[in-house]
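Sanity check

After download, print the first record. It should look like this:
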Amino acid sequence: MRIIQFGRRVLGRRAFGRRAVCALLTLVSSSLYVQTTSAQVININAVSATGSTNLQPANLANDNNGSTRWESNHGVSPSSLTLDLGQPYALNQVVILWEAANAASYEILGSNNNSSWTQLSLRTGGTFGNRTDTVGLSGTYRYVRMNALTRSAGNNWGYSIFEMDVFGALPAASSVAASSVAAGNCNLGCVTTLNSTTLRATVTQADIADIHYRINNGAQQNVRMNVAGGVWTYDIPNLNASSVVSINFTIIRSGLGQDTPWQNYSVSTPASSVAPVSSSRSSTPLSSSSRSSVAPSSVPASSSRSSTPTSVAPSSSSAASLGNIVPLYNASTALEGAIQFDRGDALVTRIADRGRDRHAKEDQFQAYDHFLSFYWEHRTAEIEIVDYVAKGGNTVRMNVKTQFKLNDTEAENRWFYRGVGTVAEYYDNGTMNVIDNLNYYKERSFNAREGRNIRIGDKLEFELSQFLDHTVPHGRSAYYGTTYLYIVGKGLVPWDVTGSFGTLGGRKDSIEIPEKAWLGGKTTLPYNHSNEPDNHFIQMATNLASQNGQPFVLGRRVHHASFIDGSHDEHVVDNGIFPDTVGKAGPHYVHDRCAGCHVRNGRAAPAPVGQPLEKWVFKVADINGNSHPNLGRALQPKSSNGVASEGQASIAFWTETNGLRKPNYQFSGVTPARFSARVAPQLVGMGLLEAIPEATILAKEDINDANGDGISGRANRVVDPSGQTRLGRFGYKAGTTSVKNQVAAAFNSDMGVMTSVLPNPDCGSAQNDCGASGSELSDTHLNNLVKYISTLGVRPQRNLNDAAVQRGETQFASIGCVGCHTPSVVTSQFHPLGELRSQTIKPYTDMLLHDMGPDLADNLGEGQASGAEWRTAPLWGIGLSACVTGGVTNAGQGAQVCTPVHSYLHDGRARTIEEAILWHGGEGQASKNAYQALSASQKQDVLRFLESL
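Expected structure tokens:
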């Protein structure tokens, strides 16, 4: 590996991920009509790559391998890399994954003869370092050339590209011969009218051909076509003039499979050929419109997978074409400042802090992780660490900005843990230097713990004490702060403890947690050492940006406020009334506050038989999967302003078979024909899941199980409130696309509160008491709540050195669980929040839908998800969730103990993690079988591993 020096840092070259090949051509669905639909944009497989000079071969930039690269000869400008696409394509864009030795300026050229070239784009201003350039293109060309003109400043070599991907579409044909079927040109499927009641589908030159179709948006049929003489056919009979048939094909040739786009057909079309019902491609089968603003129309359930009604990419090991999905964030997204950056003279880290009751390592008080009264008012601070030692200097300075003046004699910032007498003892104490009433600093060159100058690698544990001036208007004035561990020259790290009284560092000396355990990347929290087992999911991310401390606590206040009376559910008397939320819930709603369902940000659990399920959501529909006329799209049991309730849902009884229980529901009001019952989920990690690039998730799609592992995950493509098609991420069926849209949907249907995102109430066609349209909550409050949820910290994996946990992790992979529960992923560099950008996280989910079999299925889909399909659940926090859900005993400080309530799967039916495993069917069946085949001790190892997450 060649090493390059940049400033004072030495960086090894690192490989970038690669966009997968989307090998899907455009369907000419009728093969018989003149006007064709818009062509599908694909990632084109170039047939060859050529470099003007080659220190490393040109084909390495076109080999689907992000760890290899083309490299030009050093010092030669211009240098070019040319891709031959094999035939002309209507170009859309080129994506270049540059290695650090890149171009400051370059042009993209197109040609159809490899000799006469047209400039398609000119790019300038490129900077040294690994980067990805996406360049929009237009025009129809066979050859695409990157012609590098000048090297970036600091590039003393040549030009180096990991991958160069060209996106485009086959040019639309002007006409299609009417004899296509007879001539055998139905390679991508044709549909013709056989008679007044029958359509015939035909596929030619295929090894295997399956047809998938729905009549008038009814149940989907999935059928192997009939073959004779190399031609596959299938007839769809018993149609009438008003029938609309939605069709797509799965076609396999030479072991490679592809799905064609969905098209709608009708026998009422004249002549013997059948064109699509619409001249523009329909991305979904025909569906009814809905008055609900909460979600798009649902797809009725089927026990078999409902195929995706859009074009999709095959499975890849890295990244995939987005197709028609619009990414949440891209290179043009406005970014908040970085949490840590190299200033040249110093390594700078900027974080937020909040007031605390006691100290982090005091387990006898159980009073560190909770939130105090008036936590949103005057009780956060901005901290800037300026590490000059990291860049060859000799001091570390800490600048502090508070929300309120600190006490003149108690504005402490304590450094270098001592812990000899107590677990809150430091070597370097004393008040900070005062700049003004809100700004303070401390600067040191001496490590008081080691008795020498500060060096790179030193442990600087610190705790800011926010002892406010006694004139603070509300609440008490004396507070401690968060305990952080800063490694000089590296940055903040989550910490564990070691040591005993009487030794250097004392009892509970802080040590860095190994990065393997950082489930939430740099948002990862320290282990809990204050003995508060119920508060794991309510903490600020370790790397919470300095400017986001106050929005975090303001959003938390919205989360805990009643939208009926404005009360806060903690310190009720002290915290008073929040006027901005009074009287806004309803007239139909599920709960009046977010924290009413998401207690301590954890999972809800089933209520006793016959008791209202007040922390649940029931998605409902009529028999056709459309908005229920009397209920809308969600059951809202509670009501305000004299409006009648929609009725309560409860568990009528449990059915238990072989030790596994399943709930049976009853409704006090209207019983919906279709419904999906779901417990409130835990909230931690949502911002990180939002930050996973769409292409990374789509790369895991394997809709037709091309690799034969029995797993065929697919994404839910969702039209969001802005009208854009985006990747579904949140909810048990991945029905919403972003944290903001998920929060707005919860306000809308769970609380009856309208926002600017979803301003119309959930209302059935027969209802007239749903309330008025129009935003009721300010965007400021909405955005603060979104930021609060997005920046919650994730606890680290525990018991890393436990041999059982280590064996269990190996078993977890060997029995196939990682086929869906993907361990690790890197978040996008384009997410607006610095806390979430470019983080290596371990959520254990692929974010895809999987058919989990009939035993877990309900009878209502969501978006493109069927009733049997569920998004892979993230596993971070699974070993902590029972104590968060159940809380602790009602005892004094130091005497509270966990009262666990185990609640797993979408409806809480599983009472143990093992029960959750045993409920896996469908695509999870093989892994369940493999688990059951393990020895008793091996099963325990798997469970110990899962409990460590």
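If your output differs, re-run the checksum step. Summary of this record's structure: Confidence is low (pLDDT under 50) at residues 1-38, 173-184, 269-319.
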